[in-house]
Write a structure and sequence with these properties.
The chain is of the alpha+beta class. The protein has helices at about 5-10, 65-75, and strands spanning about 15-25, 25-40, 40-50, 55, 75, 80. About 20% of the residues lie in helices and about 50% in strands.
Length: about 80
């Protein structure tokens, strides 16, 4: 298989996106859950987002996305991300 074939077979399409917001220590963050259509069918991908940085999380694991957001927020200061 050529490199082009590998790249095309790895493509996915976003078929749905849900965004929820939360607040931690006065800072607002998002949890994005996307339903993607892959070669083998649809699947979900979730991430915590803060100031443009993302961290993958498991939406089906209680508190995991909130912990990811906390990690992002705790690693940010006036100079940007430091952890």
């Amino acid at each position: 298989m050529t490199a082009v074939g590998v790249m095309l077979s790895a493509c996915t399409t976003v078929i749905d996106e849900r965004i929820t917001t939360g607040v931690y220590q006065g800072e607002e963050y998002e949890i994005r859950t996307r339903t993607l259509q892959g070669r083998d069918g649809p699947f979900e991908h979730s991430s915590a987002v803060f100031k443009g940085a993302t961290l993958v999380c498991r939406i089906d694991s209680p508190g995991d996305c909130e912990k990811a957001a906390q990690h992002l927020i705790n690693g940010y200061d006036d100079r940007g991300f430091n952890r």
